[in-house]
Write a structure and sequence with these properties.
Ribosomal Protein S4 Delta 41, Chain A, domain 1; five-stranded antiparallel β-sheet
Length: 202
């Protein structure tokens, strides 16, 4: 599955928030928190435009394409409960998000790259699919290679965001444990889920 590799600062500015977390993208948004482009005219945002923006936030935040997002949406519809909340919980369970959330990496694209290159194991087995959905009891570790251990030990020592209750991370052992499934309260992306559900139901 492909993912976005263009200017991340422009996406943060266009969508009006910290979607990409690397330093350059953050700085671009903090310095110029208005949409990119010259001679911007203030236009009234249509309902369609608002819904598209909210959907795009999910796509870029989790590194999804439309086809994958719609497959999660179809799956979320068949899970008991609120469809929008179910959708976000499925996105949170992605391995690349879990690697980022646990503290192995600073950003989701960085986590995705490490997974694709085979740097991580789930329950002792190498896994190179960023879209793998973790389950309670899963253990994520680094492959037993000195160069990888050194790389991720340095990344793990960097200042991290506040941890989540459904994940535990042993910095010294470079091991993350999935204690439970995430809940809608664990989703840090501010988004209007009702608008997204209506848009994807079209």
């Amino acid at each position: 599955m492909g993912h976005y590799t263009g200017p991340k600062g422009r996406i943060n500015r266009r969508l009006g928030g910290i979607i990409f977390e690397d330093a350059g993208a953050r700085k671009a948004y903090e310095n110029r928190d208005f949409p990119p482009g010259m001679h911007q005219r203030r236009r009234k945002v249509t309902d369609y435009g608002l819904a598209l923006t909210e959907k795009q936030k999910i796509k870029y935040y989790y590194g999804l394409r439309d086809k994958k997002l719609r497959s999660y949406f179809d799956k979320a519809k068949h899970i008991k409960g609120n469809t929008g909340e179910n959708l976000m919980v499925l996105c949170e369970r992605r391995l690349d998000n879990v690697v980022r959330r646990a503290g192995f990496c600073a950003t989701r694209p960085q986590a995705r790259q490490g997974i694709v290159h085979g740097h991580f194991c789930v329950n002792g087995k190498k896994l190179d699919r960023p879209s793998y959905l973790v389950r309670p009891g899963d253990t994520i570790t680094i492959r037993n290679r000195p160069n990888l251990k050194k790389l991720y030990a340095e990344l793990a020592e960097a200042p991290r965001q506040e941890g989540t209750g459904w994940l535990s991370f042993d910095v010294s052992g470079l091991e993350a444990q999935v204690a439970a499934l995430p809940t809608p309260d664990d989703v840090s992306l501010p988004i209007d889920l009702n608008v997204v559900v209506a848009f994807l139901s079209r």
